């Protein structure tokens, strides 16, 4: 992997705008007619959300992440993909660098809905 250049400096107040939380991936559902997208049903403690992600080409079995906790950006505008509204973004590691992405996970179990930062 060739390491990317560090992005331009931002203010701490800009970082405060991003709401990153822990959620448990309860279910991975195949999206028919898509060669890369699946729908995740994620438990954030006080509510659940559907989050559409491109895992099919990255993993032999996308269902292997069911039951795992991971980091999610939860304050993005909802976005429709393949007819399904996605209510956030999986915060994974490696995709922009061209390596097979891995989940950004806590070192031990924490309550769903905990904020990162």
Automatic annotation (TrEMBL):
What GO molecular function annotation could you give as one example from this UniProt entry? tRNA binding
Source domain of life is Bacteria
RNA-binding listed as a keyword: yes
Domain named TRNA-binding is located at 14-117
Keywords in alphabetical order: RNA-binding, tRNA-binding
- PROSITE patterns assigned: TRBD (PS50886)
> What Gene3D superfamilies would the database entry show?
Nucleic acid-binding proteins (2.40.50.140)
The protein's name in its UniProt record? tRNA-binding protein
